[in-house]
Specification:
Elements lengths: L1 E3 L6 E5 L12 E8 L5 E5 L1 E5 L4 E5 L17 E10 L12 E10 L22
Parallel strand pairs: 1-8
Antiparallel strand pairs: 2-6, 3-4, 3-7, 5-6, 7-8
């Protein structure tokens, strides 16, 4: 599961794509995000920071819309589904032109708002216990 904040730059997604893409030779990743409520599909090319056998670190900016640069404007909180496709193009945004699907999962876009305040509880320290 991926967690992101809306309208925020400098975020990272950590996935394990190399272990699933053993038989797919691709240099780039196309990521599809589908809103659970709207069913609207949006695509962006992953901005890969680290891509090794252990994990793939992808930079994402949810405050601007530039899909070929790894940026996708997400201003609404909620649950989304994601799919990652392997591809040989740095500009392709069509999943039909990819090598194949590598991974799918759930993406939560969280809010930064606080809906409640934790109460301050003070316990008396002058309690006497009897046996």
């Amino acid at each position: 599961m991926i967690e992101l904040l809306p309208n925020t730059s400098g975020q990272f997604i950590y996935l394990t794509l190399k272990e699933k893409a053993k038989y797919i030779s691709s240099e780039y990743y196309l990521i599809e995000i589908e809103g659970e409520f709207t069913r609207k599909k949006r695509y962006f090319v992953a901005d890969i920071v680290i891509d090794n056998e252990r994990y793939t670190k992808i930079a994402i900016d949810t405050s601007t819309e530039a899909p070929t640069s790894g940026n996708l404007l997400i201003s609404e909180t909620g649950q989304y589904w994601y799919k990652v496709y392997g591809q040989d193009s740095a500009t392709n945004l069509d999943p039909n032109n990819t090598v194949g699907e590598i991974e799918r999962g759930v993406l939560h876009v969280l809010t930064q708002e606080v809906y409640y305040n934790l109460p301050t509880i003070t316990l008396p320290d002058n309690i006497v216990y009897y046996d």
